[in-house]
Amino acid sequence: NDVPKKQINSTNLLNTGIELYHKNIIIGAGNWNQWWGPALHSSLVLSNNSDGFFHYFISSKNYISISENLMIKGRYFVSEGIKNRLEKDFYISAFFLNIKYKSTEIGLSKNILSGGNPDISWNLNDAARVLILNTNNKYWDIMHDFYVLKEYKDSGLEIFLEFGYPNRTYGGNDPELYYDHARGTNIGLRKKNFFENNKLVF
After folding, report:
1. Which among 110, 2, 127, 107 has a CA at the least distance from the CA of 54?
2. DSSP letter string, 131-188
3. Mean pLDDT of 165-174
4. Helical spans, DSSP H, in the chain
5. Is 184 exposed, middle or buried (0-12, 13-18, 19+ CB in 10 A)?
6. How far is it, in rounded angstroms, from Cα 163 to Cα 150?
7. CA-to-CA distance for 136 and 123, rounded, in angstroms?
8. Is residue 31 a contact partner of residue 53, using CB atoms and an 8 Å limit?
9. CA–CA separation, 191 vs 121, rounded Å?
């Protein structure tokens, strides 16, 4: 959040990019802002309430059916380099997986903030592979996020629990100094078709 906006987007064209489709696979690049999580108004990992950053991605377009009741959807992206205060590039790499079984949805994500260290040689190719190879992971900030959402279709009710935690919390240290390395929980419910109006959600 402390990165000047001009470093995140070098163009005045926000939420733009290009996508290539092949069957149910999308490959693209752009500076769209993004959302991750089961909630509608609060997110632990990515929020479209902030400016987007330029990134490259591969994603499934829709859910892929594994069996009659089981479906999955995935997304993998890496950002273009973003300058920090040392004028070194750091990168955001992330993987998101959604699993649906009947009326239950499970979300799993892993996000890595890598690079930006003048003593470590690091580029876009390294950041694109860090989620797979785990290179230099002891130096990077890593965030894991999980959620479970249960839908009751007859009543239009949805309840969810989301939990996110970093690879280091600096427990016992000054919480004001390390406020951005804390665990987070998101618990909520929503009621669709409120007052029998499908446009109302509570």
Report:
1. 127
2. HHH-TTGGGSEEEEEEEEEEEETTTTEEEEEEEEEES---TTS-TTTSTTS--EEEEE
3. 70
4. 5-8, 124-133
5. middle
6. 15
7. 13
8. yes
9. 50
pLDDT band at 1 (very low <50, low <70, confident <90, very high): very low
Angle at 143 between CA 137 and CA 145, to 5 degrees: 140
Across the range 99-117, mean pLDDT stands at 96
Whole-Å CA distances, 159 to 72, 155, 191? 20, 12, 9
How many CB atoms lie under 10 A from the CB of residue 44?
21
* Confidence (pLDDT) at 62: 94
Q: Determine the Cα–Cα distance for residues 191 and 154; give it in Å rounded to an integer.
A: 11
Euclidean distance between CA atoms 40 and 93, whole angstroms? 23
Structure tokens at 157: 């009710």
Q: Which residue has the tokens 């390390």?
A: 178
Res 163 pLDDT > 60: yes
